[in-house]
Amino acid sequence: MGITILLTQSRDPTSDYIQTAFENIHKPISRINLDEFNVPNLSINPLQRDGGWIEDVNGIKLKVEDITAIILRRPAIPTFHKDETKNRFLRREFLFGLRAFLETTSAIWMNHPDSNSIASSKPRNLKIASEIGLKVPQTLISSDPVEISTWLKKHDDCIIKAISYGLMEKKNSAEMAFTQRLPINFNIKENILPGVPILLQEEIEKQADIRVTLVGNNVFSAILPQEGNEIDWRKRNNAKWNLFKLPKLIEQKCVRICRKLQLEFAAIDLVKSTSDEYLFLELNPNGQWVWIEEETKLPISNSIVEHLSRG
């Protein structure tokens, strides 16, 4: 029986959840927390198909040919040296060496780092969603005041959101840049920094948010009814998600996005408009899902185990 490697960090509740799901049905999984100092030893010969190995937390050598699945779940990288320049070099060497080892396996990735990187682009994902037939909001990404002014004249109600993942990290904490409604008196000169683009979208009058979690070809959907005139449900303290069945055609298009991006896992945010249309907002290749499973009892974790155990 093959083994799954979980590359993560010591303080990740989702990884705890995944590990427990594997252990509950006696499927082998080896968790490696890359933020800890007991980083694994490894060895490979690039000219040989087999023979490479990596140590687990107990010092047991896992053979490259026995690794059938790799879960990449927000790994944090350890500090190797107090000198910052040397530490950056050693971290890079460690990551390149680890990836060189993992690339010698024939394992299924959830997800491959290249796929995660490509799928983290909001503009690309909007384009792909539109190409396969999903409706997407009218969108502008620009740092040019003239372009922004012209676009705003054509769209009365707009929202502004982060182009990246919207997390403003501080030394010992982080602050979320929530999606916001653009003020009517938005002053372009005062709010736009030269050369720094912003992402604007037409505001969709919605009746609900929908979170779609995909594991392989399995689609799990949950719905959150609209409350008042809120823009970003993450600000809500009492959000209650419920089971929801998407139309088959929308499910198929969500799967097609993941196949196009070569993802085995993704979280997709949709909205259902007041005119009963489904619109694609964004895709996160490493999105959260545990709260959805706990609230709706959707078997997402079991689906992950089954999907990766097929290898």
TrEMBL record:
It is an enzyme of class 6 (ligase). GO terms for molecular function: ribosomal S6-glutamic acid ligase activity. One of its GO terms (biological process) is SOS response. The keyword Hydrolase does not apply. InterPro entries: ATP-grasp_RimK-type. It comes from the Archaea. Residues 120-307 form the ATP-grasp fold RimK-type domain. Keywords: Ligase, Ribonucleoprotein, Ribosomal protein. SUPFAM superfamilies: Glutathione synthetase ATP-binding domain-like. Its EC number is 6.3.2.-. GO terms for cellular component: cytoplasm; ribosome. The keyword Acyltransferase does not apply. This is Ribosomal protein S6--L-glutamate ligase.
